[in-house]
């Protein structure tokens, strides 16, 4: 294994000192087995294929890209080989995508349409003409609109430069006209979503824009680095997880719901608006559309009830739950909705539970730790 100083620039090192911290004095937790692992994981820092983007090349709150190797180790140890994995709160889809191979069936789901678009592109499309797609992306990049449109009128000079906002609106409109079928439209939209993230004047979500508009690079659409040959048996959904769980089954069920009261539809309203393209009225400084129908139970007081119901209907052999308990904070919106003891008690109705926890220090080449936090996985071997 290379030493940190010898690592090529393209890698980041995440050193995991895995140890169990007693974060909840509850008796059920004390009786739960905890496995300690100490290991160093590597992950790619940059996009390695020029002109293409990878599924992880975007900013998304709570994305688990840096955790995929850790999840993979838990799966190897606990499940051995498996034929199917369901990522039911998929977000960016990086977890399901990590396990996406010809002989593994992936079920990927998120109830935001802007996420579904990306999930379908990377894991759902089994047959597409990539050369034709390249020509269409070239054509979209060549658009130079000088007039305002729905997108520039609402999001220009704040979230984006006026020029970029006009181009985003014009490209979005053109995608409707240019796409010969639904799959092609989804891939072009995915390309737009990733390009938009690169030029957004934000800290990575759309709750607010930064006061100083200094993200001035021009918008450029790239090709997604997809492997359609892996997607033949996969299923991609845009449904409420608690509805979908009644209809599906898989060997492994990975559950990564929102942890606190911050709704993803609030943070990503702009991408949702752009993807759906229904051109609704938008309100307030942040220019959000009406999102009443997009609120998640997992961000509300009813989160524990929703989680219990999800587990009750789960048809699988192994369950992995990511849940971040950041402890009590002054900002109530950051406090976790479900207690650790509740997660353990609910999972125990299905089988044996173990907790994996690691303290995670991020390193960049030749430097010491730059930040650190803890991630945990609750594992349940289903025996019922
Ligand atoms: C913590 S994020 C998942 C991050 C993901 N594991 C990744 O690596 O990108 C939680 C996701 O759950 C979705 N979500 C929230 N409530 C949902 C529900 N009831 N059904 C389906 N998806 C939901 C959100 O849109 C969000 O993308």
At the first level of CATH, the class of the largest domain is Alpha Beta
How many strand segments?
A: 12
Number of helical segments with 4 or more residues: 13
Largest sheet: 10 strands, mixed
What's the alpha carbon Rg, rounded to whole Å?
21 Å
CATH superfamily annotation of the largest domain:
Vaccinia Virus protein VP39
Cα distance, first to last residue? 41 Å
CATH topology type of the largest domain: Rossmann fold
Helix content range: 25-40%
Explained architecture:
This protein has 13 helices and 12 strands. It has helices spanning 27-30, 68-79, 94-98, 113-124, 130-141, 150-155, 162-178, 182-199, 241-244, 264-267, 269-276, 303-313, 340-348; strands at 11-17, 33-35, 38-44, 52-53, 84-87, 105-109, 223-224, 235-237, 252-255, 318-322, 351-363, 371-382. The chain is globular, with a radius of gyration of 21 Å. The model is unreliable at 1-28 and 363-370 (pLDDT under 50). The structure holds S-adenosylmethionine.
């Amino acid at each position: 294994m290379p030493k940190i100083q010898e690592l090529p620039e393209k890698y980041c090192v995440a050193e995991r000192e895995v140890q169990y911290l007693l974060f909840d004095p509850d008796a059920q937790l004390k009786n739960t087995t905890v496995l300690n692992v100490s290991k160093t994981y590597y992950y790619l820092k940059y996009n390695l294929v020029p002109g293409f983007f990878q599924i992880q090349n975007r900013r998304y709150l709570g994305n688990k890209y840096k955790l995929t190797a850790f999840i993979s180790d838990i799966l190897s140890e606990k499940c051995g080989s498996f034929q199917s994995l369901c990522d039911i709160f998929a977000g960016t889809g990086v977890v399901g995508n990590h396990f996406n191979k010809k002989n593994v069936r992936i079920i990927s789901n998120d109830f935001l349409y802007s996420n579904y678009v990306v999930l379908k592109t990377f894991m759902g499309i089994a047959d597409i003409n990539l050369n034709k797609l390249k020509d269409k992306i070239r054509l979209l990049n060549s658009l130079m609109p000088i007039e305002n449109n729905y997108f520039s009128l609402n999001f220009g000079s704040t979230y984006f430069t006026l020029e970029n906002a006009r181009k985003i609106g014009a490209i979005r409109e053109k995608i409707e006209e240019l796409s010969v079928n639904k799959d092609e439209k989804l891939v072009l939209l995915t390309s737009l979503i990733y390009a938009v993230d690169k030029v957004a004047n934000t800290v990575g979500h759309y709750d607010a824009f930064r006061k100083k508009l200094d993200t001035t690079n021009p918008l450029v659409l790239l090709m997604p680095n997809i492997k359609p040959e892996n997607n033949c048996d996969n299923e991609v959904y845009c449904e409420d997880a608690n509805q979908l769980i009644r209809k599906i089954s898989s060997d492994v069920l990975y559950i990564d719901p929102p942890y606190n009261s911050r709704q993803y539809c609030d943070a990503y309203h702009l991408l949702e608006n752009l993807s759906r393209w229904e051109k609704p009225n938008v309100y307030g400084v942040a220019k959000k559309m009406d999102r009443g129908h997009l609120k998640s139970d997992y961000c509300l007081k009813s989160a524990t009830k929703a989680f219990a119901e999800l587990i009750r209907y789960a048809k699988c052999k192994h369950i992995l739950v990511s849940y971040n308990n950041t402890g009590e904070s002054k900002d109530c919106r950051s406090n976790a909705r479900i207690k650790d003891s509740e997660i353990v008690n609910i999972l125990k109705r299905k089988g044996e539970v173990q907790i994996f926890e690691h303290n995670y220090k991020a390193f960049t080449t030749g430097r010491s730790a730059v930040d650190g936090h803890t991630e945990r996985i609750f594992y349940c071997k289903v025996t019922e």
